[in-house]
Amino acid sequence: MKHHALVIGFVGIVVALITTVQSVNLSYANAEERVAKASPNKAAVERSRRTVQMLDNIFKQTIVMVTDKYVNDDDDFAAGSAAVLLFKKISDDSDKTIRLIDATGDPYESENVAKDAFEKEGIKKLKAGAKTVDEVVTRDGKHYLRALTPVPVVMQKCVMCHAHYEDVKAGEPIGAISYTVPID
Ligand code: HEC
């Protein structure tokens, strides 16, 4: 009887020890995976930031140029419409997702609004003066840079179709471009 109790006690201790060692190992592995996922290579994140800056510059220059040269009355095909179409095509055909969204609460098209927490919080930060907002995310084990850049009322012509832009405080963005680009 005594002997049995000793053996059972001993087996119990061994099982408890093995379980503890395993769970320590497991949580160590999980922690390592989380750290690895949370912080991709810094140089790679910088490259993605530069990609966003380059795209952002091209898009904004193009929107302003098209509005300046081609849009003369409110029946003309708006640069905003062209941008929405272009961003949809890029998002469908590549590993990037790009959207043009409203920051005034009164979008021309109800689809063009902040949809998730990153975009909603980001819009607030841009309106408070941030030049750009970004964040690293992981989807299906792959890293992406999400970024939001401000769209200001750059010219009087914008007000021709978006009359309420006139009421926006000087310097405050009326919209944003939302980017999701892979970190390679
Ligand atoms: C000719 C009319 C017209 C002009 C001028 C115009 N827009 Fe737009 N804008 C539109 C239309 C129409 C949409 C909706 C496009 C869509 O979803 O297909 C739009 C969409 C937008 C959006 C996305 C949010 C929303 O309201 O749906 C932003 C931001 C925007 N325009 C900013 C600007 C800026 C900045 C200018 C000046 C450079 C400008 N627009 C000039 C007609 C115009």
Helix content: 40-55%
Strand content: 15-25%
Quickly give the structural class: alpha+beta
Q: What is the total domain count? A: 2
Averaged pLDDT: 86
What small molecules does this complex bind? heme C
CATH architecture tag of the largest domain: 2-Layer Sandwich
Total number of strands: 4
Alpha-carbon Rg, integer: 26 Å
CATH class of the largest domain: Alpha Beta
* Strand line-up of the largest beta sheet: 1-4-3-2
Distance between the termini: 65 Å
Query: Which segments are poorly predicted (pLDDT under 50) over 5 or more consecutive residues?
Result: 17-36
Total helix count? 5
What order do the helices and strands follow? HHHEHEEHE
CATH-defined topology of the largest domain? Beta-Lactamase
Shape: elongated
Query: Sheet bearing the most strands, described?
Result: 4 strands, antiparallel
